[in-house]
Structures are given as structure tokens and as C-alpha cells.
Target: UDP-glucose 6-dehydrogenase
Amino acid sequence: MVKNKKEGKLLFTTDYKKTYAQSDVIFIGVGTPENADGSANLNYVYTVAQQIAESVERDCLVVIKSTVPIGTNDKIEAFMKEHLINNVQIEVASNPEFLAQGTAVRDTLHASRIVIGVESENAKQILTSIYEPFKQPIVAMNRRSAEMVKYASNDFLALKISFVNDIANLCEKVGANIEDVTNGMSYDERIGNRFLNPGIGYGGSCFPKDTKALHWLAEEEGYILRTVKAAIDVNEKQKYALIKKARNDFPTFNEKKVAVLGLTFKPGTDDLREAPSIPNIRLLLNEGARIQAFDPVGIENYKKLFPDQIAYKHSIEEALEDADLCFIFTEWPEIKEMDLDLFKKQMKTPHIYDGRNCFSLCEIENKGINYHSIGRPSVVEFSVLDEVQA
Ligand code: UDX
Model:
């Protein structure tokens, strides 16, 4: 990509008018954040659509990559045609993207599929010729179906995670181990082995927003999307699964020194959108906990949310120092590979609540710690009575 820029094939500009005027194909990739009622906010898409309509000077294809509710491509096309200033032909096509945070370039170059939603042979040909060099399967359909593919894919993955979390919670009650259960399930190719990790719920800029947006859209159509609603409900509750466990040992967090390892919604990104750590930390702070937190890259962004209330630490050792308990909210490699002796060495009382199952139960044994994770039996190596006696 950088090479393309050096060769003059890639240009960054803020002069949108000139760029739109001269383009044959324009991709829209702006955000569609969540409105208060769960619907998608399309303000950015419409703003760009208007700017394009008022700038284009030649026939062009406008391609919407943003995740938009079903029917939006049709509406945007009509809207742009109304706002055209020059006598040109304009057409809209849908081309949802399936990138994940932190792996956008890899996901683009090695996409599982390119979905194009078109209403004409011309649009199909233009998009096919753009994507052919990527040598990935190109799946063409109409615009509404393409818009739906994006929501249905994200919501299906969210549902998969919520299902595993639901089963994990049940595993705890019946004495099963979710790791063994998902491993046993994954040999069935119809189920697969990905997106079966239990935890404290999905976060990020897509799953929470896209599940709510599709549910909202279905309701508008007079239909209740029960499965997606279930995924949303399970996820809301799951965010607090860990703190619920800690309550068994700590009736109050007031004045407790709490170590937090991992703040971002997943490893590999400094993105905090819908990070499960946020509602948990809010709850802990409200109860008077004293938090010392470590995250390899998320601290600067976290400071914007909680400037003074948290003691930010630049190493795991420092975050654990003298702590009464420790929460793990993100499975960063640094955390998964940490020296497990640090818990006992650094903490006042090594009560660990791991929301991402970072360690195997075998490696945790005989470390002198109490360890609680998601969907697996707890490892309890000291009793609260020992603590009092000590
Ligand atoms: C997601 C989709 O993967 C991507 O295809 C889409 O285009 C945008 O949304 P992203 O939000 O960046 O990407 O991250 P992803 O890796 O999918 O994880 C989302 C959330 O699910 C994270 O909070 C992660 O911790 C959680 N997750 C993921 C689980 O809890 N268990 C899993 O097995 C997988």
C-alpha cells in the first residue's frame, strides 16, 4: 500500500469536490453509529451522498461499504438523483466489508468473500473488474440482499458467542468444562472451531451496534427477531458475569485495591468501543474500589474516559502490587504469557477473576491462588479463613 502511494497511485486529500468530480467509482466507508433507540445513525452517509451529488461531473458508480439498514442503498440512490447538479448518470451499489479491528489490511487482502449488491449489469461489471485481481470469491446479488448479508453475518457471529456464553454459564452449574465442550463440538465441520471462546461478552464497534440495528429494523417491519434479541440480552448480562463471581468473595469492593489487566474490547487494538471493561470499572468505582490498571495500548484512550479515577500502570507487576483481587478483561498475549507466580508474589490476596480464560487450569494449579474463569471449575487454593488467620 505504501508502495502504491510512492508510485502516485494513492492520494490522500481533503479536497472532496475535485476528487468526486473526477471519479468513475466512489466508495463510501463512513461510520453508522448507534442512535439512542438502537437504530443506525445515517447522518454521515447522507452528508457524503449530498456532497457527491453536488460535485460529480461525470457518470459514476457510488459504492456503499458502510453497514446500512436494508433498503438504504435504494434510498441513497433516489436522494442523490434528487440532489444532482450536473447532467450525469449515477448508480449506487452495495459492497459490505467484513474487516475486524486490528487486522483490516489482512482481512482485505485475504477476504473470505467479496459481496456485491447491484441492480445492473454495468455496476456488476465495474465492481467485478475492481475486485478480480484480489482473487477472492465474488458473490453478486441485489442491493437489499447484500445489505442483509452484512447484518446477518455479524449477528450470526454475535449469536454464536452469546450461545457459547450461555452454555458456559450452564457448564459452571452442572460441573462441565466449556473448553472441553467447545473442543468436542468443534470437530463437527458444520459447527467449526472459531468464535467459540466464552468470555465476558462481545464488544467493539460492530456486534453490539449491528445486533441492535437489525432487531430495531425488524421491529419497524412488525417482526420480532427473537434469536438476535436473545444474543443481545445474554451479552448484556454476560458483561457482569465476572463481577458476580467476585461478589461471592467480596460483599463490597469499597476500599478494595483492584488490579485490572486488559481494558480494550479485544487484543490487537486500542479501541474501547463497547469494551466490557467499561461497565465493570464504572461499577467498581461507584462502589469505592481503588483501581490500578494495565493495558499494553489502551491506556491513552482510557484516560479520556476515566482521567483521574484510575491508577494507570505500565506493567503487570505494578498493576498487581498489593491488590486484594484482580480482574482480567482482555486476553492480550502479554497477559496470557505472564509469569503466573506474579499473582502470589505481588498481590495482597491472590483472588483472580479471568473474563477471557487466559490460562489453562493445569498451569494455574499449585500457584497458591484462587482462580475463577468462565464456564470452567474454579481453582481454590486458599480459604478466606486462612486470610483472616494470616
Ligand atoms: C467484527 C467481525 O469479526 C468483522 O467481520 C466485522 O466486519 C466487524 O465486527 P471486530 O469487532 O473487530 O470484528 O472483532 P471480533 O474479533 O469479531 O471480536 C468482537 C468481540 O467478540 C470482541 O469483544 C471479542 O472479545 C468477542 N469474541 C470474539 C468472543 O467473546 N468470543 C469469540 O470467540 C470471538
